[in-house]
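Please, structure for the following, as tokens.
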Amino acid sequence: MEINWIVIGGVAVLVIILVVLTIRKNQKEKKKLTDLLNNDFKKAKKDRVDAEDSANEK
């Protein structure tokens, strides 16, 4: 029984490519989720205007 190194090498290369692509996709999704969670908050409404607040925004 002889080991077919070409088939084993091909499978190993495909597995490595699959792992690299999965890690890249996961990093992109992690960045998108982080940006979404950082920017997805509601500002509290101010009922009264502070004189010290330079923007005077509600």
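The radius of gyration is 27 Å. Helices lie at 5-39.
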